[in-house]
Amino acid sequence: MKDRRIAVVGAGAVGGYYGGRLAQAGHHVSFYTRSGIAEFRASGLHVSSIAGDFVLPHVRVFDDTAAMGPADLIIVSLKSTAIEAYLDLVTPLVAKDSMILCLQNGLGNEEIFAAAFGAQRVLGAIAFTCINRTAANHIVHLAHGLLRIGEFGSPEIERARSIVAMFRNAKVPAEAVADLRHSRWEKLVWNIPFNGWGAALDLHTAGLLGTRAGETLVRETMAEVIRAANAVGIPLKRSQIDMEISRTKGMGQYHTSMQLDRQNRRALEIQAILGKPLQLAASAGETNLPRMTTLLECLSALMNR
Fold first, then answer.
1. Of residues 2, 79, 96, 187, which has the active-site annotation?
2. In terms of C-beta density within 10 A (0-12 exposed, 13-18 middle, 19 or more buried), how is residue 64 classed?
3. How far, CA to CA in Å, does 117 sit from each of 121, 123, 129, 155, 167?
4. 0.85 cut: is pTM over it?
5. pLDDT tens digit string along 252-291?
6. Does domain 5-178 have CATH number 3.20.20.70?
7. Which CATH superfamily is domain 182-304 in?
8. Helix, coil or strand: residue 62
9. Which of 24, 84, 119, 139 has CB atoms 3.0–4.6 Å from 114's, for a disulfide?
10. Is 171 a residue of the active site?
């Protein structure tokens, strides 16, 4: 399994951490990054993690995917703000039997890669974790870390299991899932209120849950996500809300990726995390989602500003 050539497209917080764990375990990993290549080449990759700190003094890092060569496993971990543009980045990495693993937030990412490179190549991964990048080549892993991995449009999980085994051997908790869509919607129950309202109100997770009004807002938004999921045939239960609230209170003052993107005036992942779910729910006849709709309007106004 360590003979696989792995390309990580996006050496940010998520790609840097999970790719770094694979490299630490001895896998042949190459990283593409849009920024910070000088820092990577000067002092490597530094990870502070609840699962154990580590430093990779020498990493294969590139700012041009054409220089990386074809890969057996292509992990796409760039944010989905301009996903169509990423097709040009992935194309030079694709060989005859390459697999593409979409390690991204929200909905619709796998469909884009499947249309471009063939559905048989595509898998998806959902990260349940708290990770921030504090410098170009320094990543802080604060809590959790589970990966759920599944095939795009197929209940088969043997190939996903082989990737799961690879991550587990690299000290990353992982599991294979037969229903990738279910896992993506399950993650949205957390992602939409905390990433969304965190960015709109510029509040970390403890700030959102620190008042009765804030927790009510989060709970009502979660309930709408579950209702939207049910409308499109994903059987999520309202009991998930209490579980997510309890788990999040244990994270402390976690600044979500979208909140940090707002603070640093970067593009926000609005479409994949919020726009696509609202669109799918409306197509299924569920349009009574006032919290989600207002949140989309707020984030769109921020982007336009």
1. 187
2. exposed
3. 7, 12, 29, 20, 24
4. yes
5. 999 999 999 999 999 999 999 999 999 999 999 999 999 9
6. no
7. N-(1-d-carboxylethyl)-l-norvaline Dehydrogenase; domain 2 (1.10.1040.10)
8. strand
9. 119
10. no
